[in-house]
UniProtKB/TrEMBL annotation:
Pfam families registered for this protein in UniProt: PDT
Protein name: prephenate dehydratase
Organism: Elstera litoralis
GO molecular function: prephenate dehydratase activity
NCBIfam families: PRK11899.1
């Protein structure tokens, strides 16, 4: 299937960490930068791109805003997951020196993740809209006293030098990405561990959530993620996003989802896809 993929959409400018994730997961495949998450999803829905690579959560910053709202309405299916290690680089125009850097530009989260390094170096933090855009701006200005905090890919794309590599304060900084497609690609149940992702809204009665999730406990299904967010513009209606270990065709998962549907107004499966090996080999580095 990978050989049929020609273009992968992501949110951000060329060199963004999502761009880096696309290239890591789909080596040799062209990437399509999009201004917003909606644009990236629409590119796949409209047939402009074959896949979208969307960040859903970060080990330091938590969930990515808006994504939970957008995915259920996109008409797309989750077909895979990727865990992208985030290594921040201090990038500057050629000829600049670390001692001469007075300001560093980047996205507010990247700046926060490098706060200790910036303080130790006496570098002023300047907030920009995104990391790749900061790198482009630093390259265009050519000011040897101004740097950007961005990916190593940005150094190549914009002709910048890496003055200091891996400057993030937490060395476990990792972002979980989801891969979405127009058509579901449910793996065979015998192919290995899977994740089933779904959204649901419980009925507005006491203990509804407790009862709705009881089927997962009684059937031995592990929920690895459960988050709520408001829907409908009020503070009484909540929708939940969940990831569960298991295949939708497994008897235990079927029974758990049946019980969930009994106590819920709406249940929508967003995707059934292979569990990334990082769940077994890399979670220890995140403190799991």
């Amino acid at each position: 299937m990978t050989d049929l993929i020609r273009l992968v959409a992501f949110q951000g400018q060329p060199g963004a960490y999502s761009d880096l994730a696309c290239r890591a997961y789909f080596p040799g495949v062209a990437t399509l930068p999009c201004p917003t998450f909606e644009d990236a999803l629409a590119a796949v829905r409209d047939g402009e791109a074959d896949r979208a690579m969307i960040p859903i959560e970060n080990s330091l910053a938590g969930r990515v805003a808006d994504v939970h709202h957008l995915m259920p309405k996109s008409g797309l299916h989750i077909v895979g997951e990727h865990f992208q290690r985030v290594n921040h680089q201090l990038l500057a125009p050629k000829g600049a020196t670390l001692a001469g850097i007075r300001r560093a530009r980047s996205h507010v989260q990247a700046l926060g993740q490098c706060r200790g390094f910036l303080r130790a170096q006496g570098i002023e933090a300047l907030v920009d809209a995104d990391t790749a855009g900061s790198a482009r701006q630093v390259a265009e200005k050519g000011d040897p006293s101004e740097a950007a905090i961005a990916s190593s890919l940005c150094a190549d794309l914009y002709g910048l030098e890496i003055l200091k590599a891996d400057i993030e304060d937490a060395k476990h900084n990792t972002t979980r990405m989801l891969i979405l497609a127009r058509v579901a690609e449910v793996p065979d149940i015998a192919e290995g561990p899977c994740i089933t992702s779904f959204v649901f809204r419980v009925r507005s009665v006491p203990a509804a959530l407790y009862k709705a999730l009881g089927g997962f406990a009684t059937n031995g299904i592990n929920l690895t993620k459960l988050e709520s967010y408001m829907v409908g513009g009020n503070f009484v209606a909540a929708q939940f996003y969940a990831d569960a270990e298991g295949h939708v065709d497994d008897r235990a998962m079927r029974l758990a989802l049946e019980e969930l549907r009994f106590f819920s107004r709406e249940v929508k499966v967003l995707g059934v896809y292979p569990a990334n090996p990082f769940r077994q080999t890399g979670m220890a580095d995140l403190g799991e």
